[in-house]
Amino acid sequence: MKRDIFDQISPLDHRYYKSNQELMDKVSSYFSENAAVHYQLRVETALAQGLEEAGICPIGTAAEIEKACAAINPDAVYQEEERTHHNIRALTNCIAQRVSESVRPYIHLTATSVDILDTANALRFRDAYHELLRPMLLALEQELIDLARREKDTVQIGRTHGQHAVPITFGFAVAEYVARLGERITYLDHGVAQLKGKMAGAVGAYNASALIIDNPEAFEKNVLAKLGLQPATHSTQIVAPEFLLDYLHGIVSAFGVLANLADDFRNLQRSEIAEISEAFSATQVGSSTMPHKRNPWNFEHIKSLWKSFAPRIMTAYMDQISEHQRDLTNSASGRFAPELVTGFILALDRTTRVLRKMTVDSDQMRANAQQSSERFVAEPLYICLAAAGHPNAHEAVRKMTLEADQKGQSLKEIVQQEPTLTKYLGTISKRGSDALENPLDYLGIASQKTETVCACWEEQLYHRN
Amino acid sequence: MKRDIFDQISPLDHRYYKSNQELMDKVSSYFSENAAVHYQLRVETALAQGLEEAGICPIGTAAEIEKACAAINPDAVYQEEERTHHNIRALTNCIAQRVSESVRPYIHLTATSVDILDTANALRFRDAYHELLRPMLLALEQELIDLARREKDTVQIGRTHGQHAVPITFGFAVAEYVARLGERITYLDHGVAQLKGKMAGAVGAYNASALIIDNPEAFEKNVLAKLGLQPATHSTQIVAPEFLLDYLHGIVSAFGVLANLADDFRNLQRSEIAEISEAFSATQVGSSTMPHKRNPWNFEHIKSLWKSFAPRIMTAYMDQISEHQRDLTNSASGRFAPELVTGFILALDRTTRVLRKMTVDSDQMRANAQQSSERFVAEPLYICLAAAGHPNAHEAVRKMTLEADQKGQSLKEIVQQEPTLTKYLGTISKRGSDALENPLDYLGIASQKTETVCACWEEQLYHRN
Amino acid sequence: MKRDIFDQISPLDHRYYKSNQELMDKVSSYFSENAAVHYQLRVETALAQGLEEAGICPIGTAAEIEKACAAINPDAVYQEEERTHHNIRALTNCIAQRVSESVRPYIHLTATSVDILDTANALRFRDAYHELLRPMLLALEQELIDLARREKDTVQIGRTHGQHAVPITFGFAVAEYVARLGERITYLDHGVAQLKGKMAGAVGAYNASALIIDNPEAFEKNVLAKLGLQPATHSTQIVAPEFLLDYLHGIVSAFGVLANLADDFRNLQRSEIAEISEAFSATQVGSSTMPHKRNPWNFEHIKSLWKSFAPRIMTAYMDQISEHQRDLTNSASGRFAPELVTGFILALDRTTRVLRKMTVDSDQMRANAQQSSERFVAEPLYICLAAAGHPNAHEAVRKMTLEADQKGQSLKEIVQQEPTLTKYLGTISKRGSDALENPLDYLGIASQKTETVCACWEEQLYHRN
Amino acid sequence: MKRDIFDQISPLDHRYYKSNQELMDKVSSYFSENAAVHYQLRVETALAQGLEEAGICPIGTAAEIEKACAAINPDAVYQEEERTHHNIRALTNCIAQRVSESVRPYIHLTATSVDILDTANALRFRDAYHELLRPMLLALEQELIDLARREKDTVQIGRTHGQHAVPITFGFAVAEYVARLGERITYLDHGVAQLKGKMAGAVGAYNASALIIDNPEAFEKNVLAKLGLQPATHSTQIVAPEFLLDYLHGIVSAFGVLANLADDFRNLQRSEIAEISEAFSATQVGSSTMPHKRNPWNFEHIKSLWKSFAPRIMTAYMDQISEHQRDLTNSASGRFAPELVTGFILALDRTTRVLRKMTVDSDQMRANAQQSSERFVAEPLYICLAAAGHPNAHEAVRKMTLEADQKGQSLKEIVQQEPTLTKYLGTISKRGSDALENPLDYLGIASQKTETVCACWEEQLYHRN
Description:
Number of strands of chain A: 5
Low-confidence stretches of chain A: none
Structural class of chain A: mainly alpha
CATH architecture of the largest domain in chain A: Up-down Bundle
Number of domains of chain A: 3
Order of helices and strands of chain A: EHHHHHHHEEHHHHEHHHHEHHHHHHHH
Helix content of chain A: 55-70%
Oligomer: homotetramer
CATH topology of the largest domain in chain A: Fumarase C, Chain A, domain 2
Largest interface: A-D, 107 and 107 residues
Number of helices of chain A: 23
Largest sheet of chain A: 2 strands, antiparallel
CATH class of the largest domain in chain A: Mainly Alpha
C-alpha cells in the first residue's frame, strides 16, 4: 500500500526520510513493518528447523516452510489479520496457505506469539547494531580521532562555567568525545551481546513443548542458536525486559554524548567566540529575513533530536512492568522503540557529516585565549608560590587578582609591587617561570594526553576486533 | 513521492495508519507535512493581505499571492530547499516563482520564518482540536454518560487497594470518568483559546515592520485576526512556548484519564472478576497457542499508547528553554509534537469504539459484591454504633471482624454474641437497619450522584455551546 | 525527635536548609510533616463543626475537638501509628485520647482517611501559594519590570542561534520574562483556585454520611466551605488527580521560565560576551585552584535545580492512574510532591536575589552590537529594497554579504559598487536611511514595547487584585 | 545544628527516617552531608599522601593533614563557606586552620574542587553498594530463592492479559524475579566497578600538576589507587558522567523489577483472587472508616516509591551535558542523586520484610486454576492434535471453545461430539492424554525449571564470590 510521504505523520517518515533517503532505506531494512515481518518469518523458519531436528515433523517440513515464508509480505499478513484480529496467527495462517496440508500442523508448533516477536526483536536490534549502527559509530569515532590529532597542539582556552579557566588545546577538548563515545561503543557492544530470545511457550514453562519434546530447554537453545541467540535463565510469556532496556539505555546515553558535543560546538560558533564554523554553501540561506545570518543549525538540530528522543527511555522503564506472566500493555509501546534508535542514527549521521566539513579557526582560538592570559596566569602563580612554601598562596593570589581588577593593572604588575612574594618567586622552577612568562604555553600535557586517548580507543575499538 | 507504508518507521505511519485509515487521513489533514505547508501558506497569504491593507503593496498583490499558494505542494518546496537549505525561504521562493515580478517584493515582507511557522502551528493545533479532537472527546463523553446512566443502579462492589470496600453502582464508577474527562475537555477548551500567533519579526521587536509601517503592533494584530488568532504580550523570534505547552499538558493529562479508565476496565475483565467484557468476533484469535483465550487487548492497547506518548511531554518542558531571542534546538523536537496529539487521538478513538461494544455482566457484579457483603457491613455497623454514641465503635467493630475471621463466623453472628452493643443497636435508624440487613443496598447516593454528574457535564459541554 | 541536619539525606534538609534558613522555615510551615499533621487536624475540626451543624452531635463537640487538636503533634501521632499501622486512625485516636468519652464517637465520623488527607493537601498547597509563593513570584516579577524599564533603551544585539541577528534593547530582552512569568502567575492563580477537597467517604458515594445525614452533598459543601474549598463534581476515595496535576504543571512550567532566564543570563556572562555580571564579594572564591575565576554560579544553580525537579512531574502524571475507586500506589509518591514546589521556591528566591545585585555593562553591550553592525544592516537593506519594489531583494543582499565576506569589505562598500540598486535606494524613506546609516538605531519599537509589556502585567498582576 | 525531623521537607528525612531509623542511619553514613564531607576529606588525605610520595612536600605532611581532617565536621565547613561562598575552598581552609604553617601550602595542591568532589562521590556510591546495597540485594534474592523452592510444586494458574492461560507453579512465577533480580545484581556489580575518580586539575589537562610533577598521569593513578579507584581515559574538569549514569540506570532498572514484583503480588491479593496475603497485626487498621479492610499496602508502597524515584533518572540523562570543560549546571542536580539510591534502598528493605511474613494460600491457588481447567485444556488439545497431524488444529479447537461457550458445555463434551477428531486422538501420547485428563498437571517443566533458575543464580551470586 503506497502513500505520499508528505501525508505521513512522523517526521521520520517524511522530512527526515526525504533528506536522508539512502540512510533511512537502510534503517527501514531493520525497523520498518516490512522488516519486522521478515524477521518474524526467520524465527518461524528456525522453529520449524528445530522441530524437524527434534523428530517432531517429517524431513523437508522446514524447507517447505522456509520457502513459503519467502513469499509473504505485510500486505498479506494485514489482510489476514482483519479476520483474526491477531497478528501472529495471521502470519502463521499466511504460511499455512502456502504449504502442503501435511506441513501445516507443524507451523508455529509449541510456540506462543511472543516467542516469535521477542526473538525477532532481539534479532533486528542486534543486526541493526552490527550492520548499521556500529559502523556509523566507528566512523564518527574515527572522525573525532582524526580531528583530535589534527588539533592536538592548537591552543584553546579551557572554559569552566563559560568563563576562561586555563588553556588546553582544541585536540584535547575533542579527545573528551573520543573517550566518551568510545566508552559508549564498548557499552553497546556488551549490551547487544546480551539480547535474548525465547522459545518457551505461553507462560514460559514449556507447557506445550514439554508435551511432545523430551528436553524442551535443549530444544529452545537449538532453535535460538540457529539465529545466533541464547535464552535468558527464565522467561515468562516474554523475555525479561531488562536486556532491551540496557540496549536502549546505551543508545540514549550515547545520544547524550552527541548532545553534549553539539552544545559545545554550537557555543564555539557564537558570534563573540567564533572558533569553529559549520560549512555554509553558496546558495544556502540562514534566515528568511536576515540575509547575513550563518547559523550553527546542524549542531542545534542534533541537540534538538536528543530532546525529542531521550525522554522516550521513560517508556522503556515503564515497560519493565508486565503483570503476572505478561500483560499486553507493553505491546504498542514496544512498537515505538525502533524510533528511538532511528532518531539516534539520524543524529549520528548528522554529527559525522558536519564534523567532516567543519572549519577550525586556530587564530581566533589563540586570540581568545590570549585575551585572558593575564588573568589565568593566576593558577600557575598560585601553584608555584605554594610549591615554594607560601602558606597561603591561593588567597594571596586571589586578592591580587581583585586588586588588579580594581586598579586596572595586570596581575603581573601587582605581583611586582608585592615584596612578600620575592622569596618564593626566587625559587620557581623552569617550568614555572615559563608558564608565568608565556601563559599560553601553560597547557599541562594536553597534547600528549590527546595522543594517548586517541591511541587507547583506536586500539580498543579497531584493532582488537 | 510515494512509498509503501510498510517501509515506514513509525507505527503511526504503518500499523496504526493501516488499521485506522479513515481517521488517520483526517489526522493527516492537520499534522502531515502536507498540512504543515498548507497552513504556512495560509499565514503567508494573511500577511500579504495585511501588507495590502497597510498600503505597503498595490491592491491585488494578496490575491495573486493567495492564488500562487494554492498551487504549491511540499514536493516543490523540498526541491527548492535542497538549494536554500532553509525551508521557509524555499517556501517563499516557490511563491515567487508563481507570481508576477511586481508582486515578488511583498512576499513574506517584514516576517521572519518563525512568524510563519509558529503562527501556522497554532492554527493547525487549534483546527485539529475544534474540528477533530473535540468532537471525538464529546463522542466519548456521551458514550460514558450513556453508560453511566444505563448502569446507575447496577450494584458493584467499590474497591480500594483492589480489596472489596463498600458497594457502589457501576454507573457511579463510570461517572468518575464522565467528570474527569469533562473537566479535561474544559481545560483543553481554555488551552486552545490561548494559542498565540506572532508577526513581530526576527527578534520580536518589529525591527523590519517598524521600518515601513507606522503601527507595527496594530499590523500584527490585523494579520493574526484574519486567522482568528492574537499575539502574546511579548514575543522574541518565537511565540512564548508556554501556550503550546499548556495545550500539550491538556492532551497528556486527558490521556492519563483514558489510561486510568483502561486499567480499571481491563482489571474488571480478569478471569476471577469477569464483570465486563470486550466484544470478541467469531473469527477472532486470542492467542496463537491457547485457542481458548479472550483478552482485554483493547484496554491494554490504550494503556500501552499512554506509556508510549505521555513521557514525550518532557520534550515540551525542555523546549521551554531557548537561548536569548531564540536558539534552534526546539526545531526538530517541535516537529514531533503532533505525534503526541496523534497518539492521543488513536487512544480516544479506540476507547470510544470498545466502549460501544462492551458487555456488562450485572449478575457477576452483584455476585462479586455479595461475596463480601458479610464483611463490608462493618462500615455501616461502625457508623450506626458511633452515631448512637458508642465511644469506640471503629475499634470494637474492627476487633469483631478479626474474631469473625478467626472463628469462621459472620460478623453478624459475632455482633449477636456481644451484649455491650445492645443499647446502641436499639437506637439505630431505619436507614441503618436496612444497611445492616441488606448490605447490597448500602449504596449511599450512588445512583442519584451518577445522574447529577451526568447532567452537570451534559449541561456544561453540550448545551452551553 | 531532633537530629543533626547534616545527617539528613535530602539537600533540601541540609545544604539548602542551612543556606536559606529563614525561607525554609516558612516552607516548613506548609510542607513539613508537622505542617501536614496540622492541616489534617484543621480538616478534622471542620468536619466536627459540620457534624454539629447537621445536628449529628451535641453542641460543643466541635469546640472540644478543636481544642484537642491544638495539643497534638506528629510525635504523638507517629507513636500511635506504631500500633495502628495507619496514620489517620492514629491521628483520630490521638484526638480521642484528648476529649471526653461523649465526644469520641463523632471524631472523623463519616469520613475516610483520604477525605482528610486530600482536603488537607489542597489546603496547604493553596496556602503555600497565596502566602508564600505568590508574593515571591510578584517580587521577582517586580524586579524584572524594574530591570526592563531601567534598561529599555540600552542597546543590545538580538541573538538567534547564538549569532548576532539585529539589535534590540536589554530592557526588551528582559520584558520577555516579564511577560512569560506574568502569564505563568496568571495560570497558577487559576490553577490554585481549582484545588478541590472532598468529604464523600470511602468510595465517594457518601455511603457513611448518607446513613445519618439527609443531604450528604450539602453536608460536604458545608464542611469544605469552612476551609474555603469546594468539592469536584465527582470523587472516588480520592479527589480527581487532575486538579493538583495542573497546579504542579504550573509550577514546573514557571520553573522552565526561570531556567530559560538563567541560561540567557549565564551565557551573557561568558568571558567573550561579558554583558552582565553577578555580584562577587571581596572574600568570595571562584575556584579552589584558579584564583582569578568569577563564575555565573547562581544562574547555573537555578538551571541545575530545574534539571533536578522538572522531571519529577512525570510522577504526577503517573499518579493519575489509581485503580478502581483507588489504589494506594499514589500515597508515597504524593508525599514527595511538596519537594517539587520547594525546589521551585528555592530557585525563585535565588533568581530574585541575584537579579537585585546584578551589574549591567551597557558599554560592553553596545560594543558587542557594534561589532556586527556592518553585517546586520543586511536586514534593513533588504526590507528597504523590497519595499522599493526590488523583485529579489533578499537574495541580492544575501549574495552581497557573501561577497563582502570574501572580499573582506563591508556590506556598505559592496552596495556602493552595485549600480542596479541605485534606483531602489533613491526612494528609501527617512526611517530606512537612518537604519542604514546608524544600524545601532535599527531597534524597531523595542523601547516602547518594553514599556507596554511592563505596564500590561503591572496592571494585571498588581492593580486588579 | 539540630532540628526536629518533623520540620523537614523530604519524607526521606521525616516519615521514612522515623519508620526505618536503623536502616536510614546506615544510609546516612554514605549519603548525608556529613558523609559527603567525610569522603571529601578522605580524598584530600590521599592527595597529600600522593604529593608526599612524589617528593613535593616533606615527609609527615600527609599524616598531619590526615589528623586535621579527622577533626573537621560540616558545621565548621559551612561556617567557613559563608565567607568563601565556595565549599571546597572552605573545606581546605578548615584543614589549613588545623595544621602547622609549613604544611599549609600542600593542602589540595594541584587539585581542582571537582577532583575532590567527583572522586569522593565515586567512593561513597561504591562503598554504599558494597557495604549496604549489595548485601540487601543478596538478602532479597535469597528470600526469593527460598520462596521459589518452597513453592516450586504449588499449582497456580499462569495468567496473560490478566486472563487464565495455562498452569504453572507459584515457585516458577517467583523464579522470574530470582532471575531478573539476579541479573540486575550482576549488572550493578559491573557498573560499580566502573566508577572512576580523577586528579587531573581544573580542565583535565594536568596543567597544575604538570608544573611540579614529572609524570602527572602516574601521580593521578597513585592517588586514586589509595582509594581503590582508577581514572577514566580522559577527564575534563569533571569525570565523564556516563559511569555514574550507568550505575543509576542499574538502580532504576532494578527498582523496576521490584515494582513489577509488587504489582504482581498486590494483584494476587485482590479480593477475588486472594492467593497470597501480607501479614496483618492484631492492632493494625486497614481503613479509618471500614473496619474490615486488610490491604496490600506494602506492595502498593513499593510501587509508589518506584513512581516517585524512577523519573528522576531523567535528571542524570540531562546532566550528561556539561558545556566545554564543564558548566556548573550539574552541581545542585548531582547533589540529589543519592536520594534515588535511598528510595531504592527503602523499597528493597520493604520488599524483603514483607516477603518474609507473606502467606501463600495454595488451596486458593489450586481452586483458581481449577476454575478454568476445562477451558485451558484447549492448548494441550491443540498441541496433541497438531502433533498427530491435524492440519488445522488451532482453528478447530478455537471454534470448539466458542461452541462450548455458546452451548454451556465443557470443551471435553464438545470434543466427544466431534467425529473428525477421533483419528488424531487415537494416536496421542501418554503425556498428552495425561494433560487432557488432568489439566492441572499440564505444568510443563515449571518445577524443574524453578530449581534450575535458583541453582544458577545461587551459584553466580553467592558461591563465586
